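// run 5 | inverse folding | seed 20
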């Protein structure tokens, strides 16, 4: 009896395969070359009726698509968990988990939320269609269906899925690039409103700028082979840069043996100034550990001088449509740069404006008023001794 059933199924399958590949006078034959199936794509067909599954599978395979089938919602979820489908075609009336519930489960799963779902059912009433839409269905096809309409919808839904995949791929690349400059949390804020954060132009912000310069590196570079100089510099930057992100800072640029960054943009916080100071303290600790671990000659003669200043600056994307840089411009930046030049190796120097925001958290030593290049008035500054 099982032999007869299997042979009957094969017979039905061959019949429908032939029907699917034979043009009819009332239909335009769909072409497999119009929207070619991508290598990793597959369509999941879910129906408790084996004949319905065979019919839809035959049409899809004739058009060149890879097809997997499931006879229940539970089985469909198991298959989708192992390999995310490019499209799901499902029936509504199934025992156990019906099509509405299956659709809702697929759309609530992060892995399959972007997978298009086509509901194929004998139900024609508007409430049934509305229920399918509310469950997240992307298309609705009524039995008995026209094969041309079904295949056209399949191609359309797969095209939408590919566009989603392309957007996701570009976002992943953008996220990877942004993570080189800012904390991952800040990356998500930027991507949530890219029109605001990724266009040319700027705005005035209260920010805290820092410059960290390797003291004695010029002499070190003159005495060492270029390959070793680059290797040491990359090692130092590789250790110091993550500390910027750890405290939610933005990396602006590397300038020779100097790191420049800022706090307060693109995302501001009431803790920007103290975060900058804590970052600087940890940088000094890590740099000291590096000096003990690196074996390059004269590495012990290096030091890290850091200057921090808080004030208003223009923040935004500067450049052209082809090449732009998210940066800060203004007197605040210049002051921080000049201040860093006054910091000896191992020292952190902060201005009065920064000190006023962090005074409850630090111990400092007041310095004589500094006459910085480009500043008409002396600058009150402090050497940071330790965190409280």
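// decoded
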């Amino acid at each position: 009896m099982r032999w007869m059933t299997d042979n009957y199924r094969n017979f039905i399958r061959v019949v429908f395969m032939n029907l699917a590949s034979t043009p009819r006078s009332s239909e335009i034959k769909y072409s497999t070359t119009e929207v070619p199936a991508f290598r990793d794509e597959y369509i999941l067909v879910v129906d408790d009726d084996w004949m319905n599954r065979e019919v839809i599978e035959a049409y899809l395979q004739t058009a060149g698509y890879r097809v997997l089938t499931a006879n229940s919602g539970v089985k469909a979820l198991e298959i989708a968990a192992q390999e995310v489908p490019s499209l799901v075609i499902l029936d509504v009336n199934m025992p156990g988990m019906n099509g509405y519930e299956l659709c809702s489960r697929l759309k609530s799963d992060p892995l399959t939320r972007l997978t298009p779902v086509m509901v194929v059912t004998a139900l024609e009433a508007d409430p049934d269609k509305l229920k399918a839409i509310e469950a997240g269905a992307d298309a609705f096809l009524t039995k008995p269906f026209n094969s041309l309409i079904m295949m056209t919808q399949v191609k359309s839904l797969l095209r939408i899925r590919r566009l989603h995949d392309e957007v996701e791929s570009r976002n992943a690349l953008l996220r990877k690039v942004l993570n080189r400059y800012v904390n991952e949390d800040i990356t998500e804020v930027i991507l949530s409103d890219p029109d605001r954060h990724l266009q040319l132009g700027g705005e005035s912000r209260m920010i805290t700028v820092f410059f960290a310069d390797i003291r004695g590196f010029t002499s070190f570079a003159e005495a060492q082979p270029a390959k070793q100089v680059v290797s040491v510099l990359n090692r130092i930057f590789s250790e110091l840069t993550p500390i910027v992100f750890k405290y939610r800072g933005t990396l602006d640029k590397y300038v020779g043996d100097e790191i420049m960054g800022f706090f307060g943009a693109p995302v501001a916080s009431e803790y920007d100034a103290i975060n900058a100071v804590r970052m600087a303290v940890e940088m000094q600790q890590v740099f000291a550990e590096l000096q003990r671990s690196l074996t390059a000659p004269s590495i012990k003669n290096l030091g890290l001088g850091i200057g921090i200043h808080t004030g208003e600056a223009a923040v935004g994307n500067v450049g052209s449509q082809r090449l732009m840089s998210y940066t800060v411009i203004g007197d605040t930046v210049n002051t921080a740069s000049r201040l860093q030049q006054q910091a000896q190796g191992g020292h952190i120097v902060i201005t009065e404006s920064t000190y006023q925001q962090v005074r409850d958290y630090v111990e400092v030593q007041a310095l004589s008023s500094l006459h910085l290049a480009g500043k008409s008035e002396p600058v009150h500054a402090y050497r940071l001794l330790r965190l409280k």
